[in-house]
Amino acid sequence: MDKVLKFLPIFEKQGFSAGEVVANKGEFPYINYSPEVLEFIRTLYESGLIRPFDWGSWQNEATRYFNDPSQLDSADLETLSKILTLHVRKERFCEGHLKHMFESGHLVEILKRLQTIREEGSH
């Protein structure tokens, strides 16, 4: 979890940009994610926080956490893992989804909750 949490100060920094939209003439626009975001995704996989499960059928549950961020305050590690898995996997089908999750502050809030869980476990 510590390897994932090292990204929190980076993502909280004023002016952080998850990536830029690239719109070349005659091509579908796409997101050119920052090196930090690409490393974050790799770290999520390596840490085991991205897990196989039917994330598509779990989208309504994840939407509740996005629409009411206070619900993250009681989310456990398994729930946070599911949310992170959904967001990373959804990017493959919905270009820009992850960028939106960064811009909305949702991913930072998830990392803050992970940090709280980490701190509670270290006592």
Describe the protein.
- The chain has 7 helices and 2 strands.
- It is mainly alpha-helical.
- The two termini are about 15 Å apart.
- The model has no long low-confidence stretch (mean pLDDT about 95).
- The protein has one domain.
- The chain has helices at about 1-5, 10, 35-45, 60-65, 75-90, 95-105, 105-120, and strands at about 20, 30-35.
- A hairpin with a 7-residue loop joins strand 1 (about 20) and strand 2.
- The chain has a two-stranded antiparallel ribbon with strand order 1-2.
> What is the SS-derived class?
mainly alpha
> Count of helices?
7
| Beginning-to-end CA distance, first to last residue | 16 Å
Largest sheet: 2 strands, antiparallel
Shape: globular
The main sheet orders its strands as 1-2
Summarize model confidence as the mean pLDDT.
94
Fraction in beta strands: 5-15%
| Element pattern in H and E | HHEEHHHHH
Rg, alpha carbons? 15 Å
Structural features:
mainly alpha, two-stranded antiparallel sheet, 123 residues, 7 helices, 55% helix
What's a quick, concise take on this entry?
This protein has a two-stranded antiparallel ribbon with strand order 1-2. It has helices spanning 2-5, 8-12, 35-47, 59-67, 77-90, 97-103, 106-121; strands at residues 19-22, 30-33. The chain has one domain (2-46, 76-121).
SSE map:
Layout: H1 2-5, H2 8-12, E1 19-22, E2 30-33, H3 35-47, H4 59-67, H5 77-90, H6 97-103, H7 106-121
Helix pairs in contact: 5-7
